Amino acid sequence: MLTKRIIPCLDIKNGRTVKGVNFVDLIDAGDPVELARKYAETGADELVFLDISATEERRKTLINLVRKVAETINIPFTVGGGISSVEDVSILLQNGADKVSINSAAIKNPDLINELAKEFGSQCIVLAIDAKQIEGIWKVHLMGGKIATERNLFDWAIEVEQRGAGEILFTSMDNDGTKNGFANEALAKLSAMVNIPIIASGGAGNMQHFTDAFLVGKADAALAASVFHFQEIEIPELKQELRKNNIAVRF
Description:
This protein is α/β, with parallel strands linked by helices. The protein is built from ten helices and twelve strands. Helix 1 (32-41) runs parallel beside helix 2. It has one domain (5-244): TIM Barrel. Strands 1-4-5-6-7-10-11-12 form an eight-stranded parallel beta barrel, surrounded by six helices. Strand 5 (77-80), helix 3 (86-94) and strand 6 (99-102) form a beta-alpha-beta unit. The longest helix has 11 residues, at 153-163.
């Protein structure tokens, strides 16, 4: 049985870890290198590093910080933010990333997914999808959730799988930072429609929410930020709870 993964997320702005609600009202959450070290030591399965303002500010990901984090941890490391070319990915992989997360650039140029999958392998390519419901329809957003597109979440998920993405990181903007639970109905629908792993993101507030993401949402992994950054949930205790609910996790 494949184990379910617990993934802390470092949202980075100006070299610091930040966290907000519904993608706004950001507050400082600590030093990314120290947080990364703690998560690797306490049982996180992977780590995601998102330079959340790189695309909006039209600059590349913070390479030096990526390298420092990579040197500190011994778990798979995904990096996203401002990635728009084969060269960008090559530089990140050379500096310690195991996978890259692409979002806005893929929406603007879907062929980029094919190019990256061909060059580096699908296992390296995580397609991040930020979406919220507009008049009952899940619409994909870009530029860190600031710009709505006409793309439908589910149609886009099918397309990115066909183009070679190896995983989908789905963040519900409606749930993000609310601590009211993940968007399990949408997650379950996504899981039924594609054959690549789905990472649930947006809404974790307690341990039950993770259980629900796996059992109801059928997610393959669950990502969270503030509940880990501010010690509201400790990863070892979370994994014990998941195991009690017959969810396979790695210890």
